[in-house]
Design a protein that fits this description.
With 425 residues, this protein is α/β, with parallel strands linked by helices. It has 3 domains: 177 residues, FAD/NAD(P)-binding domain, CATH 3.50.50; 117 residues, 3-Layer(bba) Sandwich (FAD/NAD(P)-binding domain); 96 residues, 2-Layer Sandwich (Enolase-like, domain 1). The protein contains 10 helices and 26 strands. The strands form 7 sheets. Strands 3-2-1-7-19 form a 5-stranded parallel beta sheet. It has a 5-stranded parallel beta sheet with strand order 9-16-10-11-12, covered by helices on one side.
Length: 425
């Protein structure tokens, strides 16, 4: 049996390791399009602040020897097409790879906004090790750095840039920071916190052009929709990502936002599976398929896909939208349907001086989503309640009166639910 894995990120590596564990003699090949050993993009901010070297970004400490010992082949190339009729992958260097089972774990790539000048010198994404090298060379103390985007990824990058002693400005089109993760109160609170740390933040602003040369002897001038032109020596584009699925266009593999999968991570084409940031899987909280681009989901999807590639029936329990973010020391979190559901109820409380905010969203007596800023002690409980779809019963009304009683509600309700399940088993 020959397994071809497209993508050398966490999903691809975990899938390969799972395959080898259960199939000692099968042929396994990982195709990655970067001239690096498999590494974690989530380690790039730590590289920028000097907490790790490039070796520290690698997914496995053994380097190339790790894959040699597993007898997993590493191919540096990029898939340009998949012929599911002949079970072949076409690579950008003209080669083809035959497969018996194919895993699409190609991840995602930065989504560049259509801004004049964004493709010129001095503008970088922060997605690859090559990007990190270029940013580290330019983001010297005192440099004027402008970042486009203040979403989840943008805030992680901002955290790293802020430690380098640069003069940092962030421009976000939304009316608040992390608009796809936080409601207005929480997003506004994060903005005020960041500004208090010396970062300039422009929300509700669009970048219309990047001009060269810029004002005040800067390499660039970033023109905003307000007409203001901000000087910049370095521009970082962090305006979101999109799944790498374009090469599947003529393959017959069904894609929506990502590669659509069932509970076994199999696509509509037999023998073709998907996992990680490019996969669209079922979210049991919302009842819809979603792309949930976080590493824990990628790891579990890869394990499930690999087991099914070997014919061992394994199902994914589901994915949930989970984000926990450290923004210059302020911890925030969102789980599930944090924006609420039609006909649902919500409660929120805000302690502005303490920079704390809590918002809970209910459907009936179940907690289906939440936002939290500064309430770190509740993160695990919120996840348990949302993912476990725990029926709160009378505790729902208690939480509506005092949303800080999450721990008490979880202990009482989860225990009661467990007892009911035991009695009906």
């Amino acid at each position: 049996m020959k397994h071809v894995i497209l993508g050398a990120g966490p999903a691809g590596v975990i899938a390969a390791e799972t395959l080898r564990k259960h199939a000692p003699t099968d042929e396994i090949v990982i195709v990655g399009d970067e001239p690096e050993l498999p590494y974690s993009r989530m380690a790039i901010p730590y590289l920028l602040v000097g907490q790790v070297g490039e070796d520290g970004t690698r997914l496995r400490r053994g380097g190339a020897l790790h894959y040699d010992r597993l007898q997993v082949g590493l191919v540096q190339s990029r898939a340009t097409a998949v012929n599911t009729a002949t079970r072949q992958v076409v690579l950008d260097d003209g080669r083809t790879l035959d497969y018996d089972r194919l895993l699409v774990a190609t991840g995602s790539s930065p989504a560049q906004p259509p801004v004049p000048g964004i493709d010129g010198p001095g503008v970088h994404t922060c997605w690859t090790l090559a990007d990190a090298r270029a940013i580290a060379a330019a983001a010297k103390p005192g440099a004027r750095v402008l970042q486009l985007g203040a979403g989840f990824i943008g805030c992680i990058i901002m955290e790293a840039l802020a430690t380098r002693g640069v003069h940092l400005t962030v421009v976000e089109m939304g009316d608040r920071m992390v608009p796809r993760m936080m409601g207005p109160a929480a997003g506004g609170m994060i903005k005020r916190w960041v500004e208090g740390k010396g970062v300039q933040v422009h929300t509700g602003a669009r970048v219309d052009a990047i001009e060269r040369p810029g004002p005040d002897n800067a390499a660039m001038g970033v023109r905003l929709s307000s007409g203001q032109v901000l000087p910049a020596d370095l521009v970082i584009s962090a305006t979101g990502v999109r799944p790498n699925i374009g090469f599947l266009e003529q393959s017959g593999v069904r894609c929506l936002v990502g590669v659509l999968t069932d509970e076994r991570m199999q696509t509509n084409v037999p023998g073709v599976y998907a996992a990680g940031d490019c996969a669209e899987a079922f979210d049991k909280v919302s009842g819809q398929t979603i792309v949930s681009a976080i590493q824990p989901n990628a790891a579990e999807q890869a394990r499930v896909a690999a087991m099914n590639m070997l014919g061992r029936d394994t199902t994914l329990k589901g994915v949930t939208q989970i984000n926990v973010l450290d923004t210059l020391g302020l911890i925030s979190a969102s789980f599930g349907q944090w924006q609420g559901v039609p006909g649902g109820e919500q409660v929120q409380m805000t302690d502005e001086p303490a920079c704390r905010h809590l918002s809970l969203q209910f459907a009936g007596d179940r907690l289906v989503g939440c936002n939290a800023v500064g309430w770190t002690q509740h993160v695990g409980v919120m996840r348990g309640l949302v993912e476990g779809q725990v029926r709160l019963g009378a505790w729902k009304d208690k939480l509506m009166a005092d949303p800080t009683l999450l721990m008490e509600a979880y202990l009482a309700s989860a225990q009661a639910q467990g007892e009911r399940g035991h009695l009906t088993a």
